[in-house]
Design brief:
heterodimer, A: Pdz3 Domain, six-stranded antiparallel barrel, six-stranded antiparallel β-barrel, 33% strand, flat, B: Thrombin, subunit H, Pdz3 Domain, 3 domains, 14 helices
């Protein structure tokens, strides 16, 4: 399943880590004039202290002009950006750019420049299709953030599904090339016969001369998706499948001789497939294309993962399946939805962390960014994040609420060293999310003596004197220089 | 002949939660020249023990099992250390050394003074909780001319370590500074430990002497500070030990926290400023396990008052963690009164001093001497998850082993808490995590060859809780195919194997991969 594929390659986003570049060749005028250098001044939140931001840092990437005055680049080039500057070929003059659309799931972004002067002398690049294997390509961009445009040449080595490092958990079609793609190339076009056939975006550190670019079907899907001013995302079918290469497994399913197909082993709750497909179904065809026993379909001259058939579609589109169910053939139509998993499973960008401070306890909603912070991956948090929903779906909560740290104060005396306390209940009531916790606290009766936070992982509760926590609340915030005691994105929780 | 002591002590306090000085791994080096060593003729004077009457060097050839390929053994590793002559409870002379030094040994050699050849020693008993081992010899004359050490209880003050080294004729001079409590990682035991201040690094198994009497055995340490197992624990091992892992070690039956939150105390209705510790987990063994509850606030063990840090005021050693009481003040089986607060009420409960046992873990503590348990069917290699298996990923397995597997071990403590009060604990003890560790590729398992480290939940519709239950389930297929199911979220949730063709496939795989046995249970 795409969602749960592990990251087996060491992939590198190309934006910030700069390496020695290849031989620099000045490109032909038509392509070269459309490629720009992007400088992003970014600032990301400090997940350990969610009320404040980390220091600002600068990064460089590339982009190129396409239709409608849009500049296409990678989402990771412009994520968390506070100021975007764009330089045209051989020009020292920076132009201020704005983000028009962002697709973190497919690592793509659209920019625009208000100054009409920027567009003079520029011609938009046009898109090509999926290249043939071993056909030559050229990667354009500004590796090392240098002033001069670089062009490197190579061939298409492989077309496959793979993990996109920027979102962290999404897999999509990607194309591998041996054309040198170095840090700073990110967002630059990959060209074949004068047409853009992809956007350079990541490379493999463990292998020599392995770079990847995002192919045009995913780019076109993104451009189509954002036309209404809202990006819905790449839809997911929402199933886990396994190959049927083993003859005895095929026999156990009563499949006809010579049949292919893949076995549905798990339906993700609330996904497109939920209620339509069943565990034990064998998917034989998708959109009229035969799915082989390894789960691949013909895609032009290539064989790729059958999920490709949903890759270019939009949320709300339908997908036709031919299914072997209980030894009979059935035709099913599935309406595609956005991925059912919550945002906390993906890397987070351009969003400030939610938090709530009570009696000096800093409460947050567990997400991938917090878990990947240094020292945060405790066994309990790892289980809550990755396994509880799969192994104990009936115990699932909307968010996993965690006391990430304690701001030492007299009200929480004795708890100053406490970290990563998973809150499952407050005063005996289950806590379903951070905003739910806040609502519960707002409804506590006046005669409440204690705030008793309990965790399935901890034998002893975390107890605060309720009235003391109220009385000292502002004092604690003042001492630690915190202007607001909470931040919420949901309608249920207001920013205080 | 040159012996080089280049190996660590076996991790007595490795990764413990104790202060740094207790956690230090020892790497000791010393060169012992046997040829000249046996030409020395020391006389035991009033002030100095002749080391050659009581000690000798031993050399061990250790061969661990290969937990990745459980039908194999790993390469032989050679280690050296010191053994001392002791008299057991039955009055028989034997050699005492550390368990780490002789664990999984294929050959143990000891060289007596004046002997031209080493003598083969045999393991009589071993205790990994205490890190002690006893060796015996089949040679009748082996102990002729050797003397058993006399033992005495240690005190603070000067101590010395006799040295079996011709270049070091005087014993090392050190000082026993205090009694503390150490954690033995491989068994999760908490032991009273003497702290020895000594600038040299003695070999493992060295004996600490005070006033001509042995007071303890060096386990490990670093330059300047060493951990010494005190006489009382050695004596208990010599008199009570009856075989493998028969420790009889008095031990606490709970885990505790030194929370000092006034708010928690107020919530639990405990008098303000009352010293004591919170019982955070009740273990399925040990002192207090029968009567304590999670959330109890323990204030006294017998006559000893507990501080918020779990310390008692010991008449001899001063402030020390209460586990030190199990050295000589509290003996197994002895009645002891526990004073505590429970739900706001003061209680005095009488219990008996319990002993350490290894149970309650689905992922067992490190296994020594015993070969891995496994089962191979249709090329699918099934094992029970063990620390030994996780250590395939190295000493840093807690970060490097597959996440789902290591969580079973890392979260096992929570499970102990959950089940410790259940009466059917014995059944729980036997429950294990069965994994498909690898697949030996064959025509019968095409499509499964890449599967690794999947947790088995059911086989042929039956729950799998250990290898025996898997064997039983595979004897009762519901159709012509075996169906094996894995934990949800696994790379593959189920596999099937043919019933009839399996025997032929097994024979083929056995021959192809040179597997001596297809199961070891």
């Amino acid at each position: 399943m795409r969602t749960f594929k592990s990251l087996t390659l060491v992939l590198l986003l190309l934006l910030f880590t700069l390496c020695e570049g290849d031989v620099t060749i000045y490109a032909g005028e038509n392509v070269a004039q459309a490629v720009v250098r992007i400088t992003s001044y970014r600032q990301s939140p400090d997940w350990a202290n969610p009320w404040r931001m980390k220091p600002t840092e600068a990064g460089h990437g590339s982009g190129f002009l396409i239709g409608n005055g849009w500049i296409l680049t990678n989402a990771h080039v412009v994520s968390d950006s506070k100021l975007l500057l764009i330089n045209k070929l051989s020009s020292p003059e920076p132009y201020i750019a704005q983000v028009e659309a962002m697709a973190h799931d497919s690592d793509l972004a659209l920019l625009s420049v208000k100054d009409p002067e920027f567009y003079s002398d520029m011609t938009a690049l046009e898109f090509g299709g999926i290249p043939k294997l071993r056909s030559p390509v050229q990667a354009y961009g500004y590796p090392l953030g240098g002033q001069d445009l670089s062009r490197t040449e190579g061939v298409v080595s492989r077309i496959e599904f793979g993990t996109y490092v920027h979102p962290g958990i999404d897999s999509h079609l990607l194309i591998q090339t041996d054309s040198a793609i170095n840090p700073g190339n990110s967002g630059g076009p990959v060209i074949q016969e004068g047409l853009a056939i992809g956007v350079a975006f990541q490379s493999n550190l463990r292998l020599n001369d392995i770079g990847y670019f995002i192919p045009t079907p995913l780019i076109q899907r993104f451009l189509q998706d954002q036309l209404d001013g809202h990006y819905d995302g790449v839809p997911e079918i929402g199933i886990q499948t396994s190959s049927l290469l083993n003859q005895y497994q095929r026999q156990s399913l009563g499949l006809p001789e010579g049949a292919g197909g893949v076995l549905v082993e798990r339906i993700i709750p609330r996904s497109s497939a939920d209620g339509l497909l069943e565990v034990g179904d064998v998917l034989l065809e998708i959109e009229g294309k035969t799915i082989d026993r390894a789960g691949m379909v013909h895609y032009g001259e290539h064989r790729v993962d059958f999920f490709i058939e949903a890759e270019h579609l939009q949320v709300g589109d339908t997908v036709e399946f031919k299914v072997w169910r209980r030894k009979k053939l059935e035709n099913l139509q599935i309406t595609l939805k956005a991925p059912p998993f919550s945002d906390e499973l993906r890397n987070t960008y351009d969003v400030l962390p939610e938090y709530l401070i009570v009696g000096g306890l800093v409460l947050i909603a567990l997400n991938r960014d917090y878990l990947h912070s240094e020292g945060k991956q405790t066994p309990e948090l790892a289980y809550e994040h990755w396994y509880r929903e799969i192994e104990e779906p009936h115990t699932r909560r909307d968010q996993v609420v965690v006391v990430s740290r304690v701001l030492p104060a007299s009200v929480n005396s004795g708890y100053s060293g406490l970290r990563h306390f998973v809150v499952h209940s407050l005063n005996g009531q289950s806590v379903m999310s951070l905003s739910h916790l806040m609502q519960m606290m707002e409804k506590l009766p006046n005669d409440t003596e204690f705030l008793v936070f309990e965790s399935d992982w901890e034998p002893l509760p975390l107890v605060l004197d309720y009235h003391q926590s109220l009385e000292t609340h502002q004092e604690v915030l003042n001492i630690y220089g915190i202007s607001k005691d909470r931040r919420f994105h949901e309608p249920g929780g207001s920013e205080g | 002949m040159i012996f080089s002591f280049l190996k660590d002590s076996g991790g007595f306090f490795r990764n413990s939660i104790l202060p740094g000085f207790l956690k230090t791994k020892v790497v000791f080096c010393g060169i012992f020249f046997f040829s000249s060593l046996f030409n020395l003729h020391g006389k035991e004077t009033q002030n100095q023990i002749d080391p050659f009457h009581h000690f000798m060097l031993i050399k061990t050839y250790q061969q661990e099992f290969d937990w990745l390929n459980p039908w194999n053994k790993k390469d032989v590793v050679t280690r050296s250390g010191v053994a001392s002559v002791v008299k057991t409870g039955k009055g028989k002379l034997m050699l005492l050394t550390s368990a780490d030094l002789v664990a999984n040994a294929t050959l143990i050699e000891a060289r007596r003074k004046n002997a031209s050849l080493p003598s083969r020693m045999h393991l009589n008993r071993i205790d990994h909780a205490l890190n002690l081992a006893l060796l015996e010899s089949s040679e009748k004359s082996f102990f002729e001319g050797l003397k058993a050490l006399e033992w005495e209880i240690a005190e603070k003050g000067e101590a010395e370590l006799p040295v079996l080294n011709p270049g070091q004729k005087k014993p090392f001079q050190g000082e026993i500074t205090r009694l503390t409590v150490g954690h033995r990682q491989v068994r999760d035991t908490w032991l009273p430990i003497l702290q020895l201040s000594l600038k040299e690094i003695p070999p493992q198994g060295s004996i600490v002497i005070q006033k001509q009497k042995a007071v303890g055995m060096v386990l490990n340490g670093s330059q300047g500070n060493h951990n010494v197992l005190p006489l009382q624990l050695v004596k208990g091992f010599l008199t009570n030990g009856t075989g493998i892992e028969q420790t009889g070690l008095a031990h606490r039956g709970f885990q505790w926290k030194s929370f000092s939150q006034p708010s928690l105390a107020g919530f639990a209705k405990i008098p303000e400023n009352l010293e004591g510790v919170w019982v955070s987990r009740v273990l399925p063994y040990g002192t207090g396990s029968e009567v304590l509850n999670v959330g109890d606030y323990l204030t006294h063990i017998g006559k000893w008052e507990l501080s918020r840090e779990g310390q008692i005021e010991h008449s001899k050693w001063g402030n020390v963690l209460f586990d030190a009481l199990f050295l000589e003040d509290l003996e197994p089986g002895q009645e002891v009164e526990l004073s505590l607060y429970r739900k706001g009420k003061r209680l005095k409960l009488t219990t008996k001093v319990g002993i350490y046992q290894e149970n309650g873990n689905r992922v067992p503590m490190k296994i020594f001497e015993k070969p891995p348990r496994y089962l191979i069917r249709g090329g699918l290699v099934f094992q029970e998850l063990t620390v030994n298996y996780l250590e395939v990923w190295g000493q840093n397995w807690q970060n490097r082993a597959p996440l789902r597997l290591r969580l079973f071990k890392q979260l096992d403590r929570s499970r102990i808490e959950k089940f410790s009060k259940l009466k059917n604990l014995k059944n729980q003890d036997q429950e294990r995590i069965v994994i498909l560790s690898q697949v030996l590729p064959d025509a019968v398992n095409i499509g499964y060859q890449e599967l690794r480290n999947l947790v088995v939940k059911r086989a042929n519709g039956r729950k799998v809780i250990h290898l025996e239950s898997l064997v039983e389930a595979l004897k009762q297929p519901q159709t012509g195919l075996h169906r094996i199911e894995f934990l949800p979220g696994s790379e593959r949730v189920q596999v099937v194997l043919p019933v009839v063709e399996l025997a032929k496939a097994d024979a083929r795989i056995k021959n192809n991969f040179q597997i001596p046995r297809f199961q070891s249970l």
